[in-house]
Amino acid sequence: MSTARPLPATELRLRDGVGAHLRRERELRAISIEEVAQTTRIPLKTLRAVEADDFEALPGEVFVRGFLRAYAKALGLDPAPILARYDEGRQEDETPTPLSSVAATPERGRRFGIAIAVVVLLILFTLALSIVLRPRHRDVPVELSSVETTAPVTLRA
Known about the structure:
- With 157 residues, the protein is an all-alpha fold.
- It is built from seven helices and no strands.
- Helices cover 62% and strands 0% of the residues.
- Helix 5 packs antiparallel against helix 6.
- It is elongated.
C-alpha cells in the first residue's frame, strides 16, 4: 500500500495551470472576480473559464492571449511569464490538424466555380437570344402628317 505524500507548494504551483495561478494571485490580493471583470471589461463567464483553464470554451487563441494579458495587468503582474506559461501548456496539448479537412475545401470551391460558370453562360445565352430574336426595324422613312401649311396672306388696301 502506497502512502500519498502532499506535494511541496512550489511543485504544486508548477503543476497548476495558468488560470489556477491567476486565481491564486487574485485571492492573495483579496480582489474579487467581479472587480477584475469590471476593471478589465472581460465578461465574468470568460474570467471563470480562464480561472478553470477551460480555454476550449473561449474564442480564438488571440482573444485568450488578450484575456490573459489584461487579467495579469489587472492583478499587477507581468503578463510575459503568464503568456509563456500558457504557450507551454498549449504546446503539450496541441494535436496535428487532420488533412481531410484541408482536402474538402478545394472540392467545395470547385463546385462554386462551376455554378458561377453556368450562371454566366445562361446570362450570355439569354443576351444573344434576345439580340437575335428582336424585331428589326428597317430604315423606313417616317411619313410626315398631311397637314398643309399655307403661306400667310397680307391684304393691302
